[in-house]
Each structure stands twice: as C-alpha cells, then as structure tokens.
Design goal:
CATH architecture of the largest domain in chain B: 4-Layer Sandwich
Shape of chain A: globular
Strand content of chain B: 25-35%
Number of helices of chain B: 8
Structural class of chain B: alpha+beta
Oligomer: heterodimer
Shape of chain B: globular
Strand order of the largest sheet of chain B: 7-2-8-1-14-13
Distance between the termini of chain A: 57 Å
Radius of gyration of chain A: 21 Å
Radius of gyration of chain B: 18 Å
CATH topology of the largest domain in chain A: Pectate Lyase C-like
Number of strands of chain A: 11
CATH architecture of the largest domain in chain A: 3 Solenoid
CATH topology of the largest domain in chain B: Glutamine Phosphoribosylpyrophosphate, subunit 1, domain 1
Number of domains of chain A: 2
CATH class of the largest domain in chain A: Mainly Beta
Strand order of the largest sheet of chain A: 1-2-3-4-5-6-7-8-9-11-10
CATH class of the largest domain in chain B: Alpha Beta
Distance between the termini of chain B: 29 Å
CATH superfamily of the largest domain in chain A: Glutamate synthase, alpha subunit, C-terminal domain
Number of domains of chain B: 2
Helix content of chain B: 25-40%
CATH superfamily of the largest domain in chain B: Aminohydrolase, N-terminal nucleophile (Ntn) domain
Structural class of chain A: alpha/beta
Largest sheet of chain A: 11 strands, mixed
Largest sheet of chain B: 6 strands, antiparallel
C-alpha cells in the first residue's frame, strides 16, 4: 500500500477513483488499484462449514475471516439461530450460505460476497451494502437494505416497514409485499416490489425509482407515478429472472414511481434571505 | 429500548413459566434493569389469586429506604384485616421475598372497593388480582426473577413478559412492567415504545375514577383497554381504537384470561416478530427470543403498521 493520501486527493472530492476503502485512506499503485486493502484470494471450489450454535457474533465473523485467509471461497454457516450481526463487514468475493435465519443487522456493511440465507432476516439486513448479492429465501424485517449503496438485495417473501430507507444505489427486489414507508428518503437506486406496498410509499424520496406489481396503499409526500419505457421493462424482466422470482403480475403491468421533485429546493433561498437581498 | 414477549398455547396447559423465562432471557440485552412476568394458569372456578407487595426493592436506589421486619409484619397484618373486613377468606398464602406475597382467597363482594382499601396501607401495591393471572416483577434478569419467585414450574396456557431498560422512570418494582389493569381482573399489558399523549389520556381515565400508581406510560394502556372491555367492547375492537386514540410509537402485547393480542402503531417503528402454528403462537421483539423455545428453523414474520392480532386459548 503506497502511503497515505491527502484529503483533497480522495475520491469524495474529485470523483477520480484512486482507491476504495471503508476507513483507511490510501493511495495505491496502479496494479493495486483493483483490489481491496485486506483482500484475500479465495477459491470458490474450496468449501468449509462453520457451526454457529455456541458462537457469538464476533467469534463467527472472525472464523469467516480465518476461512478466507486459508483460501476457502464457499463458507456454509450452520445453525445461525437468528443471532444478531452475523457475517458483517466482509469486503471480499466469497460465497456464504446461511442455513437458517439471521437476527438484526445481518450481513451489514459488506462489499462483494454472494450471500444466500435459507431463512428469515431481522431488522436492517445488508445495511450499507456496497456490492454483491444477498438472497433471502424467507421474510425480511424492518429497514431492509437501509442506506444501500450498491449490489442486489433480494427477498422472496415479504419485507417489513421502511424497506430501502435512505438508499443511495443498488437494487432491492421483493417477491412479496413491503411495509409502510418503503423507499423513505431514498436518493438513488431502484426498488422492485412484486406484491403490495403499505402506506406512505416513497415518502420524501429525492430520486431513484420504485416499481410495484400490486397495489399501493398510499403515496408519501412528493412521490408520483410515472411511465415505464421499454428498456425498463426489459431490465425488470432480467432482474426478476436473475433473482429467481416469478411475479404474479406480468412485468409490463408494473407501475413505476419516482420523485415529484416538488421538494427540490436546494438552490432556493429562504423567504427571510430573499428579503435581505431585495431590500 | 425494552424487550417484550408473549406466548399462547392453544387448548393445553404447559410449563409456561419456563417458556417465558427462556424467551425473556433471550431479550436481556434489550433491558437488563428489571424483568416482569404476567402468567395465566388454569382459571379458578371459585375465588381469586392476588399478588401484592408491601415494600419496594431498593437495590438500585441512591437513597435506599429499607423497611424493618416489624414494619413489614405490621403492613401484612393490616392487609389481612382489610381482607377479613370485606368478607374475603384466605385459603392459601405464600411469599418468595419479605415484601412480595401470593394470596388465594374466596370473595363475593366488590373487588374494586377491596383493592382500593388494601392499597391504603402504606407502600402496599397490588400487582394483580385475577382468576388465572399471576403477575410477578422484580429487579434483575429473567433467570434471577424466575428463581427468586419459583416460576420454573408454573403451569398455564399463556403469558406475557417484559425486560425493561428504564428511560422515563425509576428502576424499581413500581415502574416495572407488565401492568395489571387495576381493578379489572385478569387483564395485563407489556409495552415497548412511548406514548406522547400520556397525560391527556391519564387525566381522562383518572376522571373516571381509575388509580395510577406509577408515572409509566404503559400503565394507561392496560387500564384503557380494560375500561373499554368493561363497557362491552371486544378486545380486538378496543385495540383498534387504541391505535387512533393513543399517540406515539409503540408495540404492545395484552393478555386477558383466555386471549392474547398484539398491536403496532401507524409508524411501525417498534419491532415485533411473530411465529404462528396450530398449537402455539409466540411473539417477541426479536426472533432470537422465540428461537430459545424453538431450537429448529421456523418461519416467522413481522406484522405491518396499524396491525392488530388477537389469539384465543
């Protein structure tokens, strides 16, 4: 790793991606540019399993790291027992299979792995995911995919309230219904709901799109219906196929919702400020 | 934060004390200050069960006021005298701590008058009166309270429980959940959240003559529901009404002698996970609590906003 960069050289200020990290600021050389700090070279054909019955979240997450260090590319977690914070902070390509349900904050802050959860997830699953794919075979709790930044987050059953709250990218795909305040304050990215959505969908959304196959109970502030174009229909078809979800509603009958842009007041002056300038 | 849990076994009596202990122990991280159980045994055909305390557990108080054994004995004698005066005949009595008692008594008079008079005795609070309900609460985690009160072998059909993280009132038994709906037999409530129109509702209920022992917002939910039920409104309808009349963010679980119900507010802000099967329904703030009584994989779900569910024994 080639030294610590000055703040003005970071991606956030000039959009010129010279390195990607969660916490450490670094300026990599050319060949290091495509890998992570702390990245492991794993082989998907090497498989191992970990029994989570007597493990705390911290121990399990450490064991996953140990497995990656040894080069295992497929990790099966047995008996997760709905414990909290399992499989968090994995910044590597990896196949993880959870043979059961996760509790709160499951697979949060991940970047890269492909996760399959053969059960249910609790509150805030895949929070702040950067990239990768998470597939939940059962239902999901509230705040599903909160602050999601990238990747595909798929639940075959129903998702709870505030799905995709504050999401900034990526795609959330829900095979069943979604709860109240779905897409609350979302800024970018797409949510696909094959079933119905509860009250206040897309409340205060800045941008992004919500596609709904079923009924919407009510729209939140500044969320409006819009027309789908042919590319979006194709994209939806492809995404649902990849997600292994058969929607009851044909893709062409989906409805699209976007921000009404009435709350876009970024450049407008407050009434008191305006008075000052004119007076 | 607080953790709440409820379990109902359909058409059979099981060791509900142990079921509740396992669930509440799994929720300890949501609130380690105090733990409370409201459990329902087989309803008595004749007579009532009363749980009451004549002093406070002062373990967490900065200025502890420890009552002398003579004071406690004197208060107990006063309670016995009041029961006798109202014509109640004590058939069985036991105590697990110097300050908490369990009485079984036969009684045919005005329960409200009796309960009100018992509470005139200094520092005395009735935790519950009912045909089946027994309400136990004390400081410490679920296992501590269960061992202290010998709940490991409690047989019954359903129960609710609470692990409390004290935010708006003291760490003592008075402010611990669950709450019994004084003076309605067999109604109890546990609640996770906060009511923003607490004082308004409390004044309305106080004008109807109800007493409130704590400043805890959960107490009014119990009385509010029981008051509606006493006026002939069903439990489910009363809970639907509560969604409009109580403000704030909350999820609560209420139990009567043969029903268990849960309600979630319009914002769906507080968690709840439900597992339903033919024989048993369990609900808790987190799935990890339910999994303490079902070690195998189960299918659970989150209820949506403004959802009310009621299950029969």
């Amino acid at each position: 790793m080639a030294g610590i960069a000055k703040k003005e050289n970071l991606a956030f200020s000039n959009e010129n991606l010279t390195g990607r990290t969660q916490q450490l600021f670094f300026n990599p050389t050319e060949e290091e540019n495509y890998t992570y700090y702390g990245n492991y070279d794993v082989d998907f054909n090497k498989r191992t399993s970990i029994d989570c019955t007597d493990l705390e979240a911290r121990d399990l997450n450490q064991k996953i790291r140990d497995a990656m260090r040894k080069g295992y590319g497929t990790v099966v977690i047995k008996n997760p027992g709905a414990k909290h914070s399992l499989g968090v902070g994995i910044l590597n390509k990896l196949n993880i299979i959870f043979e059961g349900s996760l509790g709160y904050f499951g697979v949060g802050c991940i970047d890269g792995p492909t996760v399959r959860i053969k059960g249910r997830v609790g509150w805030s699953c895949a929070e702040n995911m950067m990239a990768g794919k998470v597939l939940v075979e059962n239902n999901a709790g509230s705040c599903f995919g909160a602050a999601l930044r990238g990747g595909d987050l798929i639940v075959k059953g129903n998702a709870g309230a505030r799905t995709g709250i504050d999401m900034k990218g990526g795609t959330i795909i829900i095979g069943g219904n979604a709860g109240a305040f779905t897409g609350f304050m979302m800024q970018r990215g797409r949510i696909i709901v094959c079933g119905d959505v509860s009250a206040n969908m897309g409340d205060s959304m800045y941008d992004g799109m919500i596609f709904v196959g079923g009924e919407v109970k009510s729209l939140g502030s500044d969320c409006v219906q819009s027309e789908m174009n042919e590319y979006e229909v194709k994209w939806l078809e492809q995404k649902l196929n990849n997600a292994e979800i058969n929607s009851k509603t044909p893709v062409s009958k989906f409805k699209k919702y976007v921000a009404g842009k009435k709350l876009w007041n970024y450049d407008n002056l407050e009434p008191s400020e305006r008075k000052g300038i004119l007076g | 934060m607080c953790g709440i849990a409820g379990v109902i076994n359909r058409k059979k009596t099981v060791n509900v004390g142990e079921q509740m202990r396992l669930m509440l122990q799994g929720l300890k991280h949501r609130g380690p200050d105090s733990t409370g159980y409201a459990m329902y045994g087989t309803p008595k055909k004749k007579g009532f069960v009363m749980r009451f305390k004549i002093s406070e557990n002062e373990a967490e108080k900065v200025k502890a006021v420890i009552d002398s054994p003579e004071q406690l004995k004197d208060r107990k004698t006063q309670v016995d005298a009041i029961l006798k005066k109202h014509g109640a005949k004590i058939t069985k009595q036991s105590s697990s701590t110097p300050y908490a008692f369990r009485y079984e008594f036969d009684f045919k008079g005005d329960l409200t008058a009796l309960a009100t008079e018992i509470e005139t005795v200094e520092k005395t609070e009735i935790l519950s009166i009912g045909k089946g309900l027994e309400l136990i609460k004390d400081l410490g985690d679920a296992t501590t309270v269960s061992n202290q009160y010998g709940l490991g072998k409690f047989m019954g059909t359903h129960g609710i429980g609470h692990t409390r993280m004290a935010t708006e009132s003291d760490v003592d038994i008075k402010s611990a959940h669950p709450y019994w709906a004084f003076p309605f037999e067999d109604v109890s409530v546990v609640h996770n959240g906060q009511l923003t129109n607490y004082w308004g509702n409390r004044r309305i209920l106080e004008r109807k003559g109800y007493r409130f022992n704590s400043n805890c917002d959960s107490e009014i939910i119990a009385v509010y529901i029981a008051d509606k039920m006493a006026r002939g409104i069903g439990l489910e309808q009363a809970m639907h009404d509560s969604l409009d009349e109580l403000d704030g963010v909350f999820t609560y679980v209420v139990a009567t002698k043969d029903q268990l119900g849960m309600a979630k507010d319009y914002m769906a802000a507080k968690p709840m996970v439900i597992y339903e099967s033919k024989d048993i329904v369990a609900c808790a703030s987190e799935e990890v609590a339910i999994r303490n009584i079902f070690p195998h994989e189960i299918i659970t779900y989150d209820p949506y906003e403004a959802e009310v569910k009621v299950w029969q024994v």
